[in-house]
Amino acid sequence: QVTLTESGPVLVKPTETLALTCTVSGFSLSNTRMGVSWIRQPPGKALEWLAHIFPNDEKSYSTSMKRRLTISKDTSKSQVVLTMTNMNPVDTATYYCARIVPFYFAMDVWGPGTTVTVSS
Amino acid sequence: DIQMTQSPSSLSASVGDRVTITCQASQDITNYLNWYQQKPGKAPLLLVSDASDLETGVPSRFSGSGSGTHFSFTISSLQPEDVATYYCQQYDHLPLTFGGGTKVNIK
């Protein structure tokens, strides 16, 4: 059974750096073709894709967010980490990680999401 | 970036009605489009990939069609459990982009 679980701080202050971890099980981050995406959703708003990483370390970032984002993986821990610098209240959102299928770039299994609030 | 425009932004229909959502891409994306369903308080669920391929286990009342810049997602007979927001997502070019969503309610 494939599962993904997000973890990280619930509350961060403006200008701080956010680090979110996605722990996966049921598939490998090293010897399958599957990757991991991060997607966020501000309250009451649409989904916004942020970044993805594949086993060959291929990475891609949202155009509007790329200066603030870094995605990395630790295959020994089955974890993908997303860091976002200079957090702002507009970054308040539910953050999801999802397994991404190569070629179709379809996000076929999602974590339950983690809610992050940015406030002083 | 490729912009994805969904319409309508919301709709209400009766149980058993046929419901169609459209998604327009700002440039030709061939058939590189996926559709997701998101129920309130839940993570999205992949329903359709490659514009028209239904994922395993997805009820056959759901379907997708289209190519180029115009795409449709149809629920042939709306059921109460279909109340959700539906999103399209293109993968022709990185970065991946989602549409703004269509909220479907029961009248």
Topology:
The complex is a heterodimer of chains A (120) and B (107).
Chain A lengths: L2 E5 L3 E2 L5 E8 L9 E7 L6 E6 L5 E3 L7 E6 L4 E6 L8 E9 L4 E5 L3 E5 L2
Parallel strand pairs in A: 2-11
Antiparallel strand pairs in A: 1-3, 3-8, 4-5, 4-9, 5-6, 7-8, 9-10, 9-11
Chain B lengths: L3 E4 L2 E4 L5 E7 L7 E6 L6 E5 L3 E2 L7 E6 L2 E6 L8 E7 L6 E2 L3 E5 L1
Parallel strand pairs in B: 2-11
Antiparallel strand pairs in B: 1-3, 3-8, 4-5, 4-9, 5-6, 7-8, 9-10, 9-11
Output the helix-strand order of chain B: EEEEEEEEEEE
Overall mean pLDDT of chain B stands at 97
Shape, per Cα inertia axes of chain A: globular
Distance between the termini of chain A: 40 Å
**What is the number of helices of chain A?**
0
Structural class of chain B: mainly beta
Quote the beta fraction of chain B. Answer: over 45%
Q: How much helix is in the residues of chain A?
A: under 10%
Low-confidence stretches of chain B: none
DSSP helical segment count of chain B: 0
Q: What fraction, in percent, of the residue positions of chain B are helical?
A: under 10%
Number of strands of chain B: 11
The radius of gyration computed from the alpha-carbon positions of chain B, rounded to a whole number of angstroms, is: 13 Å
Note down, in words, how this protein is organized.
The complex is a heterodimer of chains A (120) and B (107). Chain A has 120 residues and is mainly beta. Chain A is 0% helix and 52% strand. Chain A contains no helices and eleven strands. In chain A, strands 2, 4, 5, 6, 9, 10 and 11 form a seven-stranded mixed beta sheet that branches. A four-stranded antiparallel beta sheet of chain A has the order 1-3-8-7, with no helix packed on it. In chain A, strand 9 and strand 10 form a beta hairpin. Chain A is globular. With 107 residues, chain B is an all-beta fold. In chain B, the strands form two sheets. In chain B, strands 2, 4, 5, 6, 9, 10 and 11 form a seven-stranded mixed beta sheet that branches. A four-stranded antiparallel beta sheet of chain B has the order 1-3-8-7, with no helix packed on it. In chain B, a hairpin with a 6-residue loop joins strand 9 and strand 10. Chain B is globular. The mean pLDDT of chain B is 97. At the A-B interface, strand 5, strand 9 and strand 10 of A face strand 4, strand 5 and strand 10 of B.
